[in-house]
Amino acid sequence: MIRDSRLSATLHLLLHLAEQADPIPSDSLARAMRTNPVVVRRLMAGLRRAGLVASEKGHGGGWRLVRKLPEITLLDVYRALGQPVMLAMGNRSDAPECLVEQAVNASLDSAFREAEATLLAHLENVTLAQLNAEFRARLSVRKQVCGLEKSDAE
Fold this sequence. Notes:
By secondary structure, the protein is mainly α. Helices cover 56% and strands 5% of the residues. β1 and β2 form a beta hairpin. The termini are far apart.
């Protein structure tokens, strides 16, 4: 099954942008993501329309964040991507007159609505600042494990 990873990829891009004061070109972001610059530009276009990022052309140009990390929720990013379908599962609709299909679909519809509402609530309550803090914590642990950062004990 092919999964839509645009939200995950876009959040990844945004966290890279958060780490740099200067604009980052699409090709640099693409290298970080191991993808094509066209993919980056497509993802960023919706974010630009939503007022989350801006692009600057020419030498020294690229993408930059327009809003601060605590102001951007994962739901904002999801909406900027055009609200892609969240759940890969759906109801069978080959025989809408079938009472069995109606009963099954009614039950599944309720479960799908609950799952989507839960996921949307989570996206609304998580900011890019929180994701960035999680990244920073993981980076700190890695540096300590690799001996790249002096410990407080020294």
